């Protein structure tokens, strides 16, 4: 249960960070300058091309070393970055690349008349983002963001390779101590399943709230 709590904390933090990066990245790719668009394109392409385990190892070890080198160059003492903060940062960067594309696609799905009307009223870009773009794109983005949340809950298991005590690492340690590997890994699988089922219930409610006033989506086979 301690490992599950750590996994949920990392998943929540990484998903929130990735969502913030995704909103900024999508806005930059759609409305930014050519330099910003090119930088966002490089970021999303590289992160989605490199395996997540390689990125985690690279960002976890090289990233913390670069931060301490930068602090040292400015005359500050090195900092000991906690595993929780490092895990959230690493997975958040990975999540941000995928969230950028999900949100960009959702923004493109918004009827352009709404955007044009906001511009015709002289609405500033920031206000248009808060009042028009984000609320209107939410129903289109939720399915993709829901998948990213479920991926985040499982990607926390990759942090076991750097020794962070999330659910998989705690399970492995418990199995090594008791030699009851099957029992503990089955229990871990059940916990991951319960977390997914609970998440699906919450996501379903959020999606119904976001689609209020919109025509229902017909299910296949009916």
Structure description:
The longest helix has 31 residues, at 125-155. The chain has 222 residues and is mostly helical. The protein has a single domain (2-210), classed as MetI-like (MetI-like fold). It has helices at 2-31, 34-49, 52-73, 83-108, 112-120, 125-155, 167-178, 181-210. Belongs to the binding-protein-dependent transport system permease family. HisMQ subfamily. Keywords: Cell inner membrane, Cell membrane, Membrane, Transmembrane, Transmembrane helix, Transport. The chain crosses the membrane at residues 42-62, 132-152, 180-203.
How do the strands and helices of this protein lay out in sequence?
Elements: H1 2-31, H2 34-49, H3 52-73, H4 83-108, H5 112-120, H6 125-155, H7 167-178, H8 181-210
Helix pairs in contact: 1-2, 1-4, 1-6, 1-7, 2-4, 3-4, 4-6, 5-6, 6-8, 7-8
- Average pLDDT over all residues: 84
CATH 4th-level superfamily:
MetI-like
The secondary-structure class comes to mainly alpha
Q: How many β-strand stretches?
A: 0
Distance between the termini: 41 Å
Residue ranges: pLDDT <50 for 5 or more in a row? none
Subcellular location: Cell inner membrane; Cell membrane
InterPro entries: AA_ABC_transptr_permease_3TM, ABC_transp_permease_HisMQ, MetI-like, MetI-like_sf
Family: Belongs to the binding-protein-dependent transport system permease family. HisMQ subfamily.
Membrane topology: Multi-pass membrane protein
């Amino acid at each position: 249960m301690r490992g599950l709590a750590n996994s949920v904390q990392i998943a929540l933090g990484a998903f929130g960070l990735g969502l913030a990066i995704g909103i900024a990245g999508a806005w930059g790719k759609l409305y930014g300058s050519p330099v910003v668009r090119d930088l966002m394109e490089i970021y999303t392409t590289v992160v989605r091309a490199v395996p997540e385990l390689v990125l985690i190892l690279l960002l976890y070890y090289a990233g913390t070393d670069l931060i301490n080198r930068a602090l040292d160059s400015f005359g500050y003492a090195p900092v000991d970055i906690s595993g929780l903060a490092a895990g959230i940062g690493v997975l958040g960067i990975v999540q941000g690349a995928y969230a950028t594309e999900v949100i960009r696609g959702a923004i493109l799905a918004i009827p352009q008349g709404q955007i044009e009307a906001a511009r015709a009223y002289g609405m500033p870009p920031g206000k248009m983002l808060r009042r028009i773009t984000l609320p209107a794109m939410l129903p289109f983005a939720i399915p993709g963001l829901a998948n990213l949340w479920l991926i985040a809950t499982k990607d926390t298991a990759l942090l076991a390779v750097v020794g962070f005590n999330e659910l998989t690492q705690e399970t492995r340690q418990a199995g090594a101590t008791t030699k009851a590997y099957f029992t503990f890994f089955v229990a871990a699988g059940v916990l991951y399943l319960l977390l997914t089922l609970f998440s699906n219930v919450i996501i379903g409610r959020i999606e119904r709230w976001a689609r209020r006033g919109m025509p229902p989506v017909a299910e296949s086979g009916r």
